[in-house]
Each structure stands twice: as C-alpha cells, then as structure tokens.
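TA notes, week 10

Several of you asked for a full example with nothing omitted. So below is the full record: structure tokens for the whole chain, then the designed sequence directly under it. When grading your own attempts, check the secondary structure regions first.
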C-alpha cells in the first residue's frame, strides 16, 4: 500500500478499500474526481464482459465528485465516505435513477425517493456510480436477469457470481466499485461473496431498514416480515464495519427496525478468541477442498493460541431448520399471490423441488395461519438453541456453500443436482443449505475469503455471532484474517 502522501496508480486505485480511499481523499492525496474517473475507466474496460453494472450514472457521479472536492477545499467533510464511489444492487430504490429489480414491468420505473440505505450512503458522502444486476425480483442463486442478461464471475466467466446479489459481488471483486450493498433472505449476500472471493456481512435481522427495497413491488403490501437483511460487500473487514455503521439504525419508514445501538466492541488479540467450527450440517456434503481449508484454519487458530472446538449446537436439528425456513419463506412470499396461483404452486412445486428447503416452501403456498405460527414457534426454539451455543464462543466457523462457483445453468435447471465430490446434492440445497439457517434465526454472519480450489476459484467461510453482536463478530473476523489473509484480486484485473 502506498503512503498517505503518494497517490496510487489508477489500476491500483480501483482496488483500494473504501476506507483507504476515504483517507486518501480527506488527506488530499488524491481528488474525488480522480478516483471517480479511475473507476469509470475501469468500468468501461471490464463491465461489457462481466455485465455486473446495469445502470451507470457517469454524469451524476462526475458532478458529485466535483462537489465533493469543492466541499473539501472549503473544509467541509460530508461524512466517513466522502468522495468514495459505491454501487448498490438494483433492488434498492434510487431517486431519479432507474430501479428495476430485474422485473420487466419495472423496466422504466424511476423512484421519487431513495431507499433508506441508499439515502444513508449518500448522507455519509458516498458517490453513487450506479446499480448492479440480479435475478428477477432477487430470487435465485445465479445472476440471470430477464432485462439485462447474465452476469459473469470475474474469476471465471463461464461461472456465475451467485445470486441474488451477484452483480454487486462481481462489481466489487473486479474493482468496478469501492464497496457494494446487497440484500439477503437466504444467502443472497453471502453466496456471491463466497463465489467471488469477498468479505461480506449479513447483519442481525431488523438491524438495517428494508424501506425502499423491491420486492415488495412499489405500493404493494409487504409480506416479508422475517428473515430479510441488507448489508455490505467489500474487500476488507474494515469496510464492512464502516458500511454497517452508515446504514444501521432505526428508521421511521420501517417500523420493524429495532432501536438497538450499534456499540463498538473492544479489539482483542487473536490468541484470546474462542472459536467453534463445523463442517457437518445434517450430513450436507461439501467439497473436500472446503473441508480441508476449514480444518487447516481450525488447526492454525489452535496453534495461534485460540480456544478451538469442533462443535454443533445442542438441540439444533438442521433438517428441522431447513423445513422451518422453507415454511416461513413460502408462507410469506406466496401470500399475496392469487389463490389459483398458490394452489398450483402447492400441487406442482413439490414435484419440481426435491430438497428440504423449497419443497416445504411450495407446500406452504396455501398454509393456514395455524401452520405459519407453528413454524414461527419452532423458529423461536431454534433461535434460543443457537444463542445458548454462541454464548460460549466469539464466533462459529462453518462453510458458506457445498462448492465454489458453479458454471452457468439455464434457469429451468437450477433445481437439478450438483456433483459434490461424487455425491448428488440438489442445487438449491448446495447453494443455500449453509446460509438460510441464519436468516431463519436472524443471527449476523460474516463471510471471509479463505482459500482457493484446485481450479483457482475462491472459497470462503462464514463466521456466525450472537444476535446484535455484529461489532464483536467483525472484530473476530478481522483478527482471523491474520491467518486467512486479505482480499485477492481476480486474474486479469
């Protein structure tokens, strides 16, 4: 890294972290205009092959960069992201800028108001470059948009960056933006981070406002009252901490956001930390490279002086968790559909989906209130079991997915089985089986890049912490990077 009085070259500038760029701009090492021009040039060079950014506001970004430099010259700092270019997933409403959620009826939708998280990024001084690609209405483990086409993984263009925040992950990993914002109801932040070699955070449920997120469709009833979260994707843990500090907190537009203060936790040496780890979620297969990487990490942490135990929570049934997640997800998502549509989903869905997540979801398309509340009751028990378990650890380490980034698949083949070291696993379970559980329980989860497959693809891990304990969890993740290492730039970028 360059000293604060030395400006990085443009090809390095776009791979600085958001925190570094903010410091460079505030210190006068480089102007916001120079930073924005570097990113716009990089986008022009690489986005046509990736199709990560689907709406680009060059004129607006340049204008705001000039304003940022003028403000700084006058001694005014807008906030901790002053002059830093960012992008957001195209589910977040942006005033005066197209917001589609990859849904054809919204192809020309121009909101009048920013989503709360977008407004807070702008209030912190960020420069919004544009919006990133996703599957239609944020539903899918790939990034295949009916409006904008397929986004490619910067590590291998024959592979998906994951979904549904896949365009955002590809953009951050390829240096098209300094930091990104995604949303996650089953793994949609964490799976793309794992596939693209990034750091990412799914905060505690109800830590961050969902106001201005699509779905629900503009003006429609919002049936999603549980399990959804918005959070940052970045190239360092420091940026996750910075991003969360900007977007978290109560919101008058989303009354479900809890008034729980975001209090920093004391930084502790790695050797004092306590970790549990597991590679066994109810017998769900994982690649040998993922298993070996996690085991090596556990051994290295133990050698560093950490308390490390291979443990799963007592009284926590993973199959029950998948079933409960599916039932709640299905009851919420399908509740606003016409009765006939729900009937056919209930009858045909179980024939299409053979996994323990989406088969129960389909069966819940016509669920009664009693069935829905019974699922919420089981959810409470699972939350309590995991909280008791996490009370004894600073973090629980586990896989993000069964495999690294998969090759692009047609949408009608997503439910087909994947080969995981010779074992056939339903695609949806391989992609979400390790992540949706923590949407169910509402616990915060951090993804950290760990290692690479023999094909050179990134492999990440999850760190799970206690509810509302994001800052302590981020501290543990940052300490763990002493062993796991920093962000690695994809070849060719």
């Amino acid at each position: 890294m360059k000293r604060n009085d030395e400006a990085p070259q443009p090809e390095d500038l776009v791979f600085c972290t958001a925190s570094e760029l903010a410091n460079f701009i505030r210190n006068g090492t480089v102007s916001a205009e120079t930073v924005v021009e570097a990113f716009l040039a990089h986008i022009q060079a690489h986005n046509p092959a990736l199709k990560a950014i689907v709406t680009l506001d060059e004129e607006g970004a340049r204008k705001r960069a000039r304003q940022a430099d003028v403000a700084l010259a006058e001694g005014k700092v807008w906030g901790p992201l002053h002059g830093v270019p960012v992008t957001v997933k195209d589910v977040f409403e942006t005033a005066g800028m197209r917001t589609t959620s990859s849904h054809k009826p919204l192809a020309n939708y121009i909101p009048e108001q920013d989503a709360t998280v977008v407004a807070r990024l702008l209030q912190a001084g960020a420069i919004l470059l544009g919006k990133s690609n996703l599957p239609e209405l944020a539903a899918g483990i790939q990034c295949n948009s009916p409006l904008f086409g397929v986004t490619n993984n910067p590590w291998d263009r024959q592979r998906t960056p994951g979904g549904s925040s896949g365009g955002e992950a590809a953009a951050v990993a390829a240096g098209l933006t300094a930091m990104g914002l995604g949303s996650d109801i089953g793994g949609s932040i964490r799976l793309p981070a794992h596939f693209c070699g990034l750091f990412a955070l799914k905060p505690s449920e109800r830590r961050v406002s969902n106001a201005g997120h699509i779905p629900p469709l503009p003006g429609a009833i919002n049936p999603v009252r549980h399990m959804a979260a918005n959070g940052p994707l970045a190239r360092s843990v420091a940026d996750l901490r910075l991003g969360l500090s900007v977007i978290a907190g109560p919101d008058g537009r989303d009354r479900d956001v809890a008034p729980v203060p975001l209090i920093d936790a004391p930084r502790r040496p790695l050797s004092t930390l306590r970790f549990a780890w597991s590679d066994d979620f109810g017998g769900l297969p994982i690649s040998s490279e993922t298993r070996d990487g996690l085991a090596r990490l556990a051994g290295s942490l133990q050698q560093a002086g950490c308390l490390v135990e291979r443990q799963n929570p007592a009284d926590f049934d993973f199959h029950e968790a998948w079933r409960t997640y599916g039932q709640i997800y299905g009851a919420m998502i399908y509740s606003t559909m016409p009765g006939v549509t729900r009937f056919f989903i209930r009858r045909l869905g179980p024939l299409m989906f053979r996994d323990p997540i989406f088969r129960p979801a389909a069966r819940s398309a016509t669920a009664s209130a009693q069935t829905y509340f019974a699922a919420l009751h089981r959810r409470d028990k699972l939350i309590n079991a995991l909280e008791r378990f996490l009370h004894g650890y600073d973090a629980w380490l586990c896989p993000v997915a069964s495999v690294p980034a998969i090759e692009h698949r047609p949408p009608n083949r997503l439910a087909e089985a994947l080969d995981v070291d010779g074992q056939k696993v339903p695609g949806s379970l391989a992609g979400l089986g390790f992540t949706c559980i923590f949407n169910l329980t509402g616990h915060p989860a951090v993804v950290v890049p760990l290692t690479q497959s023999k094909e050179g693809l990134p492999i990440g891990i999850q760190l799970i912490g206690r509810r509302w304990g994001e800052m302590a969890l981020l501290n543990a993740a940052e300490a763990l990077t002493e062993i796991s290492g920093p962000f690695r730039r994809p070849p060719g970028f």
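The mean pLDDT is 96. Use that as a sanity check on your answer.
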